[in-house]
Design a protein that fits this description.
Order of helices and strands: EEHEHEHHHHEH
Radius of gyration: 31 Å
Bound molecules: zinc ion
Number of strands: 5
CATH topology of the largest domain: 434 Repressor (Amino-terminal Domain)
Helix content: 40-55%
């Protein structure tokens, strides 16, 4: 924090022209001259951290999930393009056996794989879901703790 050049007060300062000299002074002393510009106080490190934290918290509230009927959607879109599973797998650089598992609903593709399929078939497989119960994990671990206590009591 800088101090007023004239009275030494520790406060928000302004640059003022006083008797021909540029001085960093408080608002009170600035009255003796002419204010050139105000000094904007920089945000402190602590304030910046809070801003960053809020941003990342917002991100965590939305998760990407694969739609329930992904297998039907993939199969339909693939058949529209007159591709069999083998050809389709080749086009997106995946194993035909994997595509079979996915289309039969036995294997949920990863988000990355789903993105690749989405792009190729021009369909939508990924949904953005908001996490409604933010305390889900906390509740789970709390229950675990209670269980542990019960075990110890027995
Ligand atoms: Zn002053």
């Amino acid at each position: 924090m800088s101090l007023c050049d004239m009275c030494g007060k520790d406060t928000n300062l302004v640059i003022a022209l006083i008797e021909g000299t540029e001085l960093k002074v408080c608002e009170g002393c600035a009255k003796f001259g002419k204010i050139i510009r105000r000094i904007q106080p920089e945000p402190t490190k602590k304030e910046r951290k809070i801003i960053e934290k809020t941003k990342s918290d917002e991100k965590e509230e939305i998760i990407e999930v694969i739609v329930e009927d992904y297998n039907k959607k993939i199969k339909q879109a693939r058949e529209k393009l007159s591709l069999d599973q083998k050809d389709f797998a080749k086009k997106i650089n995946e194993k035909a056996s994997l595509m079979h598992k996915i289309e039969s609903g036995h294997f949920k593709p990863s988000i990355n794989l789903a993105r690749k399929i989405e792009k190729f078939l021009k369909i939508k497989l990924i949904e953005q879901q908001e996490i409604k119960d933010k305390n889900f994990n906390t509740t789970k671990s709390d229950a675990f703790t209670i269980g542990d206590i019960l075990k110890k009591m027995r």
